[in-house]
């Protein structure tokens, strides 16, 4: 059985003042409306970020009793992982209509935190926390510093990711930075340094928001209002909790998750028309581009030159503005999927990638800890 995404939507975004469950409800009901399906049809639910019992709590709030749920918490890539689990559950006949959802009011709550204090005997507590790192800023800065050293690239390569994201955001009325005006490489380099070599402009936004996607069989999706977006392949890899156990800060689990996704789909990186990569920090994009095989090891800086990932470039990347300029509500991986679906449907207006037929969504969670890749395609 082939599985497809039949609906996709965002909740309110930016600074909403809404409770998390309100944002979840907005996202779910809007995605179901997009799919042309009633709430009562939902018999599978995957979500996290509400509590330890996220799926249970959201289902109860909506009056659902799903036959299948998943609340795996793996940071920002959890939602790409959910796609794999949902496909498998639908193929197995365990459920028929799965909603993957997320919502966070992180900006209204004035917090970057998704959890509490580290446990007493974790590697972070024993070996890292005594040095007072900013979580997660300092950790990604370590990876960035190492990457610049081993590749010979300059900070301008990191800045290009932020500049390109802003250019895409200027084409997206829903983007948090839509009205902020263009960003230059010089602006990024001159922004306040937080943890060398990363400035405030190298880091993702802190916003409220969320989204949802609806999955069902391709056969059924073909009878629904919107063009189905087919799940072609998926892969995942969990590597390290923190930097203490990371052997190489410049090699990520994207190597494995990407290879598995491409193998399942029978595709290669050259087949991808539009890519949505998690951009918690600018360095995350460079490491993901290399790990996924879009360029060789140490070659991401050269890959980005010449406006390649900007609007009008040859490699459309993070076409909604990404976590850097569109929205980043604590965990961003669900919104990668929403934008990929919209691009394949041709719904993106001024930022639409002409003729897009294959999209890649790649999530990263934790401290470069968890990685999940999904390949999506138009229904041929």
TrEMBL record:
<protein>
    <submittedName>
        <fullName>Acetyl-CoA acetyltransferase</fullName>
    </submittedName>
</protein>
<dbReference type="InterPro" id="IPR016039">
    <property type="entry name" value="Thiolase-like"/>
</dbReference>
<dbReference type="InterPro" id="IPR002155">
    <property type="entry name" value="Thiolase"/>
</dbReference>
<dbReference type="InterPro" id="IPR055140">
    <property type="entry name" value="Thiolase_C_2"/>
</dbReference>
<feature type="domain" description="Thiolase C-terminal">
    <location>
        <begin position="235"/>
        <end position="377"/>
    </location>
</feature>
<dbReference type="Pfam" id="PF22691">
    <property type="entry name" value="Thiolase_C_1"/>
</dbReference>
């Amino acid at each position: 059985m082939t599985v497809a995404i039949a609906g996709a939507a965002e909740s309110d975004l930016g600074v909403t003042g809404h409770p998390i469950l309100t944002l979840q409800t907005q996202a779910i009901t809007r995605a179901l409306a997009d799919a042309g399906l009633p709430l009562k049809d939902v018999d599978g639910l995957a979500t996290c970020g509400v509590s330890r019992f996220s799926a249970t709590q959201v289902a109860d709030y909506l009056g659902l009793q799903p036959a299948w749920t998943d609340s795996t918490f793996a940071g920002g890539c959890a939602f790409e992982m959910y796609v794999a689990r949902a496909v498998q559950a639908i193929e197995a006949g365990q459920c028929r209509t799965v909603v993957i959802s997320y919502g966070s009011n992180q900006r209204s709550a004035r917090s970057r935190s998704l959890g509490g204090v580290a446990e007493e005997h974790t590697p972070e507590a024993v070996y890292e926390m005594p040095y007072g790192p900013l979580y997660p800023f300092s950790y990604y800065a370590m990876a960035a510093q190492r990457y610049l050293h081993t590749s010979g690239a300059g900070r301008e390569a990191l800045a290009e990711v932020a500049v390109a994201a802003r250019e895409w955001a200027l084409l997206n009325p829903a983007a948090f930075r839509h009205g902020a005006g263009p960003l230059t490489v010089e602006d990024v380099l001159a922004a306040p340094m937080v943890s060398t070599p990363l400035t405030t402009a190298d880091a993702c936004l802190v916003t409220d928001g969320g989204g949802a996607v609806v999955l069902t069989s391709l056969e059924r999706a073909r009878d629904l209002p919107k063009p189905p977006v087919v799940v072609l392949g998926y892969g995942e890899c969990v590597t390290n909790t923190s930097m203490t156990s990371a052997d190489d800060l410049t090699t990520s689990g994207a190597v494995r998750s990407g290879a598995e996704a491409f193998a399942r789909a029978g595709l290669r990186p050259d087949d991808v028309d539009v890519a949505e990569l998690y951009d918690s920090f600018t360095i995350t994009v460079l490491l993901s581009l290399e790990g996924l095989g879009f360029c060789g090891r140490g070659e991401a800086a050269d890959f980005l030159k010449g406006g390649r990932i900007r609007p009008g470039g040859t490699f459309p990347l993070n076409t909604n503005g990404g976590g850097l300029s569109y929205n980043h509500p604590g965990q961003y991986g669900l919104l990668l999927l929403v934008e990929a679906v919209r691009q394949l449907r041709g719904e993106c207006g001024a930022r639409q990638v002409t003729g897009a037929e294959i999209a890649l969504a790649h999530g990263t969670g934790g401290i470069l800890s968890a990685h999940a890749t999904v390949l999506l395609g138009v229904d041929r």
